[in-house]
Fold each of these.
Amino acid sequence: MSPEIGQRLLGGQQGGGGPFMGRDFMGQGAPPMSQALKQKVDAEIKRIVDEQYNRGMTLLRDNMYLLDELAKQLMEEEKVSGEQLMKLINKAAAEGKLVMGNTQMAVAAYVGEVIETTAAEAA
């Protein structure tokens, strides 16, 4: 599913699977794909994968502070629980160091803990 290809069943699937596994009720499956459509699908898959790879790398670079804090904690304890990770994320968000896209996040996704900040940090 993409704006370029649309929502369609692609490929001539052989055997296996019922009507809810990409096949129709008559067992015909999807119509065969032309070479041009195969190239279009391949190009769209490459575009989506490249776009998401770049997005992931940008998020990692923008949140290096959080990764460094996580690395420090892992060096000390060897493993980090989900709760500890959420505390790190909340701390980074409270300090204004959590970044999502071009926006600095003011809050983290998990609430339920109080993070104490000094008057200087709050100002």
Note: The first strand starts at residue 98 and ends at 100.
Amino acid sequence: MDKSFQINKGVNKPMEFKGFQAQYIVYLGIGMLLDLALFTCLYFVGIPILINAGSCLMIFFGLYQKVFNLNKTYGQHGMMKKLASKQIPRAIKIRDRNYIKSLKSKSISND
């Protein structure tokens, strides 16, 4: 009996769509929805369609370029790592020596 198994390739690869990876696809999608909402609002206000469409296309092109540059600069997890690194304190200030002594005595008693 010859058994054959299906191999699922690319299971742990990041999601990618036309060069955009991971969360940048979501950023672009949200930006497109906001741009569509802006187009709709400007249309109902009464702005001429050519001016409305031209301005929304320029906004979308700027959004596309910005998200693409973020994707190219930071990659899949780089932007999250950069935002997380800003939350790490540069130094920890301890003004009481007794705290350090208690840590040292606890580590000695645990050994």
Note: The chain is about 65% helix and 5% strand.
Amino acid sequence: MSYLSHREMLGGLESVRVVLPGDEVMSYNPDSSGGSIFLGPGLRWEDGMVRAAKAGLLKKTSRHLYFVDTHQKRYIPQRREYVIGIVTKKKGDIYKIDIGGSEQATISFLSFENASKKTRRDLALGDLIYGQLIVANKHMEPEMVCIDAYDRAMGMGVLPAGGVMFNVSLQVAREIINPDCPFLLTLSKKVKYTVVVGMNGRVWVKAAHQNSMVALMNCILMLEYMTPDEANEKALKLLEALM
């Protein structure tokens, strides 16, 4: 993810619009003091211009993050993104993690809160891990950590047993990753649950009962082919039938 300053935005950027690869999105002056933005997936800066690298809907979040929203299912690792991975192999002090990309990520046993050689935590094959990518480029394999810059877990680490993980499109993952997502807040009024969303299109949910977790999974999957309002109505009916 790139961090750029900008002065001028082209008309229409504040509203959703369709872009194609090569389309000009906004101009940018590195010496400008007009604010800062984050460039997410599908955008590239080159020769003083931000251009689209993928076809899709150009969107902006409240935190000045711009990205191209597509129905892509294959995940392309991006630095600083939070993902859910599956432990697949141990090699010395390094674990291999499947994050859904073309290459597996790695994580050191020291990349956890309060980890040391004496207090190291052994991971089992198949464990689910929620963490952040600190290395992600075409020349190196992705590297993952479960601590922030101050060595705090901040919710990252091995996910508890008893939950269920499933895959959604990257578009749906971006829609529900916001803690204040209206759809998830509506579900929480009917069922108490915990949810973890990875930018790689993986969602993990845990509730008190198995049937509640299956219902929650089906509710979230409705967003693949329904609008949030349509899914909201269907989800409420489904959850009410369980109560």
Note: Confidence is low (pLDDT under 50) at residues 1-14.
Amino acid sequence: MKHDDLTDISLEVAASTFAALGSEQRLSVLRCLVRAGNDGLSIGELGQRTGVTGSTLTHHMKILAQAGLVRQEKQGRSIICAAVAYDAVHQLSHFLLRECCADSSQPDKDHDHG
């Protein structure tokens, strides 16, 4: 999700990003990279931790990278993968929650999403 405005993403961008997360394996890969932090993991370590390896992992990383959720960079002989999803996840949650209870007759005091 490559978009600069945190408060207003389009339906199209949100749908494509949610689609990229629409696989248990991709979601597992992303969660693992989020846990690893900014240093990321080598592709081998990522595969070991998630149980997703080889061409399947390559395929999932390509989809996540196209959605702007992860990055890959070559460091020597290794490929290091890292999550860059923090802003994207914030955008997605804001997209879903910004109009929370807008059509309700009573304000939703239990779900203040600011």
Note: Residues 24-36 form the longest helix (13 residues).
